[in-house]
């Protein structure tokens, strides 16, 4: 890794920190659901935070599933782990769908209790998932990937964010162009 600033594995790890902060934002936004007078505003804020989290999560999963994992496919010992991580990505999406449904189901009245529980569950699933990637997958990638592959991953991640013509050009690999509701979003 000749240049840490362009190291895609560092960028992926930074995205993990961002996603963790997004979960904290969701939890904070959900606290407002307990106050009937502030519920409408809390619901709007929460929907925005969840939508942001989902966009970030999907793009991060694409970075891993389309750019990183395929380049590690020849490492047979890692194959079961990568399979499991892909399945967990789908589970995270389902958990997020459940979270959104809980908010929409009753206009937020029951969500004040349900959302924190769902966020806790998602956070626990994420912690295990992220620990595996950072302790097992990324170190293997550092040992195995040639500089040309690292460079290609960086380019693909940039392209995914519009630097090559798709998405939002203002947004870098772990960049965050907008902060609905004034909530913190991380790096
Ligand atoms: Fe992942
Ligand atoms: Fe990840």
From TrEMBL:
UniProt xrefs under Gene3D superfamilies: nmb1532 protein domain like
Domain of life of the organism encoding this protein: Bacteria
Biased composition, class Basic residues, residue ranges: 176-187
Ranges for domain Hemerythrin-like: 8-141
InterPro entries: Hemerythrin-like (IPR012312)
UniProt-annotated stretches for the region Disordered: 152-187
Identification of the protein by name: Hemerythrin-like domain-containing protein
Organism: Sorangium cellulosum
